[in-house]
Amino acid sequence: MSDYSFEYFTVRFPTDQQYVAHVEINRPERLNAFIEVMWLNMAKIFNKLSSDPSVRAIVLSGAGEKAFTAGLDVKAASEGLLSSETSTDPARKAAFLRRHILEFQECITAVERCEKPIVVAMHGFSLGLAIDLSTATDVRLCSRDSKFAVKEVDIGIAADIGTLSRLPKVVGSYGWVKEIALTAREFGAEEALRVGFVNGVYDSREATVAAALKLAKLMASKSPVAVQGTKEILNYSRDHSVQDGLRYTSVWNGAALQTQDVSAALLSGLQKRVPTFEKL
């Protein structure tokens, strides 16, 4: 594997999980709260994994027992981006803030844009930015002790990194999203499962990560042409009409159906053996 050394993150490639990468947020002493270098590094990691032919599926989790991530490090932000000092006029400060917000959004979008499917394993405090980040992944799992909240109204801002755009599409209920976003109330694992925010609830952090790795391993065992195409088409269709989605699928599969993976998969089924696929 090429070098995946990035501050505040640990990237592993489990030997018993072929083609799976495990990305762990690693700032447990601060509940994995994000400072600027973290979201910049996270974008670099997922951009790199996206084109790595040795990776077919990814697990994202948080180090430590207390939190997946407590969100934005508010203390650091209050001394920097959210500082009340106004050394320039409002128009110039607005231009600076807009560019900074767009850069932050782009770092989260790098997770969604990653070509490989991503399974997130959340536990403990999963607040604010945790919702932005998890809604940019493909499958969400959590431990029974998870505590979720869209916290931004409690610090005087509207969530601006992705939650308000992605969460309604994940759960399919604007009423529920408006309730939790306007109140900043906490909700737990069972409610998250009931509304469709998470796919499964497990007894501990370790069990959640193990389940995520198992799911990622299964995804990685499939044709990477098929898996990556499926993710691309699903994400496109989510944001477009049915007819647009069908047209895009026809163009995509016009090329993808020519892969040798189709015959490899069909023959392995007939011969009752596990298929192998070339790197993509």
TrEMBL record:
The keyword Lyase does not apply. Pfam families: ECH_1. Keywords: Acetylation, Fatty acid metabolism, Isomerase, Lipid metabolism, Peroxisome. GO terms for biological process: fatty acid metabolic process. Its main location: other. It comes from the Eukaryota. One of its GO terms (molecular function) is delta(3,5)-delta(2,4)-dienoyl-CoA isomerase activity. The keyword tRNA-binding does not apply. Pathway: Lipid metabolism; fatty acid beta-oxidation. GO terms for cellular component: mitochondrion; peroxisome. It is found in: Peroxisome. Belongs to the enoyl-CoA hydratase/isomerase family. This is Enoyl-CoA hydratase/isomerase family protein.
